[in-house]
Amino acid sequence: MVRWTASAITRTDPVKHVLHLIGSGHDYYDALRKSILFFEGQRSGKLPPDQRVKWRSDSALHDGSTVGRDLTGGYYDAGDNIKFGFPMAFTTTLLAWSIIDFGRNMGPELKNAVKAVKWVTDYLLKVTSTPDVVYVQDLTWQVKPPLHWRPRPLYFVSRDPAYSRLLLNRAVRVFDFADRHRGAYSGSLHSAVCPFYCDVNGYQDELLWGAVWLHKASRKRKYREYVVQNEVILHAGDTINEFGWDNKHAGINVLISKEVLMGRAGYFESFKQNADDFICSILPGISHPQVQYSPGGLIFKAGGSNMQHVTSLSFLLLAYSSYLSHANKVVPCGETTASPGLLKELAKRQVDYILGDNPLRMSYMVGYGSRYPQRIHHRGSSLPSVQAHPARIRCKEGSRYFLSPDPNPNVHVGAVVGGPNVTDAFPDSRPFFQESEPTTYINAPLVGLLAYFSAHP
């Protein structure tokens, strides 16, 4: 194991401290290209002819065969070989949101970003093809028969009108099913998804999240009324500074607030207040028990894989900054005023930290910069490829690769790992999976951030 540590940095003005390394001149477009390329290394199923990540081969080609269906495709969520629907839906939505808000800044990479979304929406259409059924996969070393679960709706605006209508109609059907059968999916699938993806936060936020996106997509009054009528019942004001695959509250509030700031949805005013409160809770120097900053300025929240919080919360900072800017508004936070410019700077500081502006002077994106994690917790990356090792590697035989001090044989370009701890220390070691494992839901919001900063460095 290689462990890098950072000495403590004395903080005076917390806001200035978090911003003190801005302006280092990163190549954000290169990082954007690599962050999208990462998703090709997470693909499951039959790979297309234009596959660019060559060490990833066809895999899981028999998914669904035990129930007579083709359930191939989708993404492996992290360093394993399992397709979890819950985080996959969040990943897809954040990729889509990145394109909706920042696709104009993606240049030639826009087509690759759209491909990254379509790879998984094609899969989601497969697993929702039977009315009132969603197929999922459990966490085992070998592929197991899919199970039925209670779904989380998803919507993506496609540049293909017919495909877009198909997705929207399917999202409506799945949402109706979820609303009729309310409950946490892990209630019936506890042994299959826990402790990795237990729905600890409950199903309520997912229903609001789905309704908000359906309102945005369809502009139908019934979804607006659903959100307003269920705001209290579904706890819209809970845990306002949480946003991730299990807790959508901050994202719900920010997404809806755009309507309020544009002056066309006063009935959503309470959501805007929640969004303002979220902003105030995350500012450096504001005392909040759920949000910390490392000595080097990285957002830190308790639990594993901290970079998922960094990228998701930073995405919301940037999105809300854009909405505020267009409305010529600021967020009052007691004696502090959070301007759109300040929110962008805070988001940029987090991105710069990931790319190398941190006490260890290393990039937490594999393949970006001259110093980055070499021993990430990822099966496909840490095991020799089929081309290099055609013979089968059995489960126990993989231990020598897992425990090896050598760098991974396959460089998973664009993968962003879980990141350093609250002291800015980082163990470049596969067994420390919370720090060294990449996930799709870390990269998805980062795509939007990098797109914006590539055009506005």
TrEMBL record:
Its EC number is 3.2.1.4. The keyword S-adenosyl-L-methionine does not apply. One of its GO terms (molecular function) is cellulase activity. It comes from Salix udensis. It catalyses: Endohydrolysis of (1->4)-beta-D-glucosidic linkages in cellulose, lichenin and cereal beta-D-glucans. The active site is at residues 377, 428, 437. Residues 156-450 form the Glycoside hydrolase family domain. This is Endoglucanase. Belongs to the glycosyl hydrolase 9 (cellulase E) family. Keywords: Carbohydrate metabolism, Cellulose degradation, Glycosidase, Hydrolase, Polysaccharide degradation. Transmembrane segments: none annotated. GO terms for biological process: cellulose catabolic process. It is an enzyme of class 3 (hydrolase).
